[in-house]
Amino acid sequence: xxxxNNVRLYVEGNLKMxxxxxxxxxxxxxHVVHSKKVSATAxxxxxxxxxxxxLKIPVQATIFGLIFxxxxxxxxxxxxxxxxxxFAFWSGFLLVGPMFATVLxxxxxxxxxxxxxxxxxxxRLLFNNVKMTLIFSVLLAVVMIAWIRISGIVVALYSSEVLxxxxxxxxxQSLSSAMATEGGRGFVFTxxxxxxxxxxxxxxxxxxxxxxxxxxxxxxxxxxxxxxxAVMERLGTTLIWGGIVAALTIVGMATYxxxxxxxxxxxxxxxWHGYKEMxx
Length: 280
Fold this sequence. Notes:
- Helices cover 77% and strands 0% of the residues.
- The N and C termini lie far apart (76 Å).
- The longest helix is centred in the middle third of the chain and has 29 residues.
- By secondary structure, it is mainly alpha-helical.
């Protein structure tokens, strides 16, 4: 009799376990920060505001511009030593900008609040939001590594017929001559296409996410998603802004990074003003 009761209890227990509903797990959705619609001419106004902010704190802004330009020179010199990867190195240089721009965003915020930051306070700004900044640096590093690796593959595919020289000047001459051949044009257009795709990805990820993090409005995941969403929703305005950034970047590189001493802080301040208009 005991055996029968034990069997019955065992069966009833298993049936009860089988019919018990599994626990429901709730996931909190990402609360995206929505952007406002702005005019197509707004990016030019942001640039003007950026210049005004630069003129209010010219010494502090110029020092950070010098730091950024020095990094650009160092990367260019590394590219000269290995000319096959000159475009990859310069592409990597474009990824460094947003990280140093976080200091400029905080400087613009201080000026906006009516207090010009001192050099001592500017140096402390480098350590604000360290955790999120480091996480974002990892994201940038992943994109940069993928960019360099794919650029290396493109170079390897065309190196025998395009990059026959080992010097920097010789490489530029090879590229110029290669444009007259079908393989050379394929190399240049493929490399530019790859760079354009990664530049667009990088722009969407970082256009507004870092100012949002500096403003302590949200976490890094939400900031990145909000930035990408804003770029897609305000594509016309953001493409105009991206074109301005690209044009001034070309000017900075054409002057061997000297112009970046002013261009970089002005763009950083202008980005902050653009963020405030689109998300405030």
